Amino acid sequence: MRIDILNTVREEMRDQVTVIISSLDNLMVVATLMLSIGFGFVVEGTFPPAEKDYEYDELQRRGES
Question: What are the transmembrane regions (predicted)?
Fold first, then answer.
């Protein structure tokens, strides 16, 4: 009886660890992709436009007119 309970707890812990590990694997893939894209921007010298280049005030004035 006691051994069955210990085996059940052990299996449950193993399942939880498997879920956590797969989640960490997914996060590692996403982090690797983000790092490689950022590194590609630095190497190629192509960066997204700065926020000041968008001229939000001018676009808002056009929309109000």
Answer: 20-43
Opening angle at CA 55, ends 65 and 38, nearest 5: 145
Write out the two tokens for 62.
Answer: 């056009």
d(CA 57, CA 65): 13
* SS3 label, residue 44: helix
Predicted TM-score (pTM) of this structure: 0.55
Residue 60 pLDDT level (bands cut at 50, 70, 90): low
CA 30 to chain centre: 5
| Cβ–Cβ under 8 Å, residues 41 and 47 | yes
